[in-house]
Design goal:
Helices cover 51% and strands 10% of the residues. With 790 residues, it is of the alpha/beta class. Helix 28 links the parallel strand 16 and strand 17. The chain is globular, with a radius of gyration of 27 Å.
Amino acid sequence: MALVVLLTAFGWAGAARAALSDTLCNPYSSAGPQAWPKAGELDRAAAGVETELRRRGPSGRFGDLLLALDLPASDTARPSPAEIADYCAAAGELMRISPEGSQRQAEFYLLSAFQMARAAGKQTVASVAAYRLGLVSLSGPSVVGARGAGRPTRGGATAAIRGAAQAGGGGACDLLASPQALFNANLTLSLASLACAADQAAQAGDSQTAALASLRLSRLRLAVAESNTAAAAQFRAQAAQAAIAGLAAARGIADPALRAEIQGRLAFAALDAGPGQAADLDGVVQAMATAQPDNPAALSFAHALSARLALAAGDAPRARRLMDQALIEESQRVLPARLPEWRLLLAEMDPEHRESHILAAYDALDAIRPLLPRFDPLTEETAYSLYMRKVFQSAVDLDLSQASGALEQVRVRDAQKIVEAYRQAELQSVYGSECVPERDPLRPETLAAGEVLLYPVLLPDRLELLYVIGGANGQASFKRLAPNRGVDREAVSDLVEQVVLSLSYDNDNAWRAPSRRLYDLLIKPVEPDLTAGSILVIVPDGALRGLPFSALLDADNHFLVERTRVSVAPSLAYSQPGGDSRSRGLQLVAASLEMEVKLPAGDFEKLEGTAAEAKTAAVVDGKRIARSWTIDNFRRQDLVNVLTQERVDILHLATHASFNGRSDHAFIVANGEVILLSELRQILAQNRTRGDELDLLVLSACETAVGDDEASMGLAGAAVQAGARSAVASLWPVNDVGTGELMDNFYRRYREGRSKSAALRDAQLAMIAKGGPEANPNIWAAFTLLGAWR
């Protein structure tokens, strides 16, 4: 029974597909195939795949490699555990990085590779498999939305942090050997995997893997410390330990440039964990400087580290001189990626000129941002998190701290522009600027009367609210409310988590108190400007992207949606108010999936009610709308045929979808295949070549991640990538009855002439007024409008 539960929970599909990798790399089954590949074939296949993965890089296509791993089996001799471990490590890495792969299967394969390698005494293979497992768990294995489906045990960031506190201890490898390994939260699994990888690699003499695992482990622990005050001291101490251990391992890296780079990053992580670590860094600067004496990157890093050590010792003048030298050397690089960070450090060392240093950091980032890679080649962190976030936050903080007196309007406008650039950079970093269709950005000055634009800004020490009130003839008012220092980013994120977990998982009343608190923090300050005919457009920050704003409660227990229309904009650069497209007649495609599908990306259970939902979109009063198409159990080619041959205004997709984890793994499920979001964008681009942009994309079976800022961009990113003016999508899976009723109400009102925002609001109000189960915000609040609202 335990095995059945495991296989069901994690979508194991080996029996259905009978792929060799599924059979050999199942850590929860001792059964094997009746026949095996011939001697040596597993090793050759694994070596070939590893070579090709290194050659092609993460941007390649890998469909042929998936086939190369599915070897014919005709021998009765079982391969050794060592051979199987090598094979599963290669198969797991392929699943991890390939857009055609499955993050969930990658976890299975890599865990199996680790366990077999450990049993066979192959520490190097075990460490590599554990390191890759840590990376795949960090990226957030895709959470598949399935309406009405059973859900995993309630979790979230806070619960994950509690469970992860001991994950990096001496028992990290034992945790991976446990039958329950994959039941741990992503954070716990990542910490354990990285700690185990560092330990096993060090024992095997694999200096590079040991140092990289320690670096990623240290930075992950620092990120947890930054987001959780209660756990900060413990996680910072553990981060320091990992960084110091990594520095010891890094000394054995043969490549001098790589050695200097990793040493510098580890030393910085140690200092970020606490200035008390400075005493343990003696000799690191000299080692970095002498490793490549003619390399400006190594010298820049060495001088910046020296500057930080001088500052920790209380010698600010020397720190400034060394930092100036680091800036000179960094400027000599082809891509001076660290100039913004060095400028911020100089602002810390030279507080008298803090403003000029922060402005210089922002200007430097603006110059190099288009050239930065999406992901760091060493740690696979996004360029945004590695190089941009702190610069944007510092620039916003600077403008807002000076927003008073005669300069208040100017400073608030400047801050709004920086926040907007902040949101754009985050989307482009995660999804790639080439994957985000260009648009004419909305200028806040063009907002109409009754349109209120709200920018909540979550800072480490406070909550800031910027907002713009539309007016006639471009007379918009820019305002900044007094900063709320009673809460910070962590406190707001915790409140959001409580609301979302209660509404989407437990269906209890625990969401009410944090919902009221969030209303008081975010909405009450702008309440006087929200009238019956107004619309509140929110550009959310961080965890707020996953918040169902419509369900926020005021002091009288009235929902925000009862006061005003609500829309969410991931960024104004990728949103417009929209216009009246009803005069030309809306043309609609409604595609549904109502069958069980087994794919490398996972097993997807049969959906009920999706075909009826598609019919709801295409039928009014029992009559089919002119120029509408419904496609049951659709395939990719079905969408290609209609979207490239007809002008389509609305695309309604009632199927499984996954928009979490790595952005290049985002997909929707079709009949016998997945359609990557990037592929859907290309299909829709054919529609746009005729001058017709998709007006509305409806995604009715998806969900966002809880407790992960980047993963929570999945839904907004899906809407932006697809190139639609607007999207209506679910934040969590909703049952068939609730989805069908809300969609019926929405389309009925939209066709009557309401705007998209008004139609969605009216549909939600109708469900509230009706009472009964559908009045529960667990149903109607799951749906949100992104993008154009008119």
